[in-house]
Specification:
By secondary structure, this protein is an alpha/beta fold. The chain has a single domain, classed as Nucleotidyltransferase, domain 5. Helices cover about 40% and strands about 20% of the residues. It has 6 helices and 5 strands; from the N terminus they run ααβββαβαβαα. A 5-stranded mixed sheet has the order 3-2-1-4-5, with helices on both faces. The longest helix is centred in the last third of the chain and has 23 residues. It is globular. The N and C termini lie far apart (about 40 Å). The N terminus is likely disordered.
């Protein structure tokens, strides 16, 4: 499967917004400040960190010659409110299993390595995240790890914009350059580059709060 730049969602914002997004901290004003995080290490973070997860449409996969495309590409994002660390993974479809996959292959292993518990995950009320615990993959996964699932369908709360801000940052700092460097990319190639980008991003976040 191949990506083309023709249907990319990267042209939705003007150049002025792009310049601002690349220079500023993408999560400034939404995550805890360095002082708040230091306080939380011994107080408010007891019980674990609070994460926000959201899915975004990225682009259409189109036919290239005889190679048939498979439709839409989605980006699953997760952001830690306490540290600003974030995670992203690309998928050819939107469903609950992909939401679980992001947590099981990227998010929880990372926090386990850092010795940090995850207390709760905030999502929107969409079919990928919400359902009955015995049968819904995402709900069942969180329940098995004793992680509380909370809804963030309240636009007045600033933390509900964490994933939106982070995804906008990814558009201009990662996806746009990646697609300009190569005419065609496989999904696996894009994910490999994205993993390297996120590793550097999270290292920078930890340096700020350490």
């Amino acid at each position: 499967m191949f990506f083309t730049k023709a249907k990319s969602a990267l042209d939705d914002e003007d150049s002025g917004t792009q310049e601002n997004s690349t220079r500023a901290d993408p999560l400034a004003g939404f995550t805890r400040s360095d002082e708040e995080f230091e306080e939380g290490k011994t107080g408010r973070s007891i019980g674990g960190h609070s994460l926000f997860q959201e899915l975004f449409f990225f682009c259409n996969v189109k036919n290239v010659g005889d190679v048939r495309g498979t439709g839409c590409i989605y980006v699953e994002t997760v952001v830690d409110r306490d540290t600003g660390c974030a995670f992203a993974k690309v998928y050819p479809a939107r469903n609950a299993m992909n939401s679980v996959d992001t947590l099981s292959t990227r998010v929880l292993p990372y926090f386990k390595k850092m010795g940090i518990a995850v207390k709760e995950i905030h999502t929107r009320k969409t079919p990928e995240y919400c359902g009955l615990v015995p049968i819904h993959p995402f709900e069942t996964f969180l329940s098995s790890y004793h992680i509380q699932h909370l809804s963030t369908n309240q636009p007045g709360k600033p933390y509900s914009y964490l994933c939106v801000q982070f995804y906008r940052y990814l558009q201009y700092e990662f996806f746009q350059p990646a697609l300009r460097m190569k005419f065609m990319l496989t999904l696996d190639e894009l994910q490999t580059d994205l993993d390297a980008f996120m590793e550097a991003f999270n290292a920078m976040r930890w340096k700020r709060v350490s």
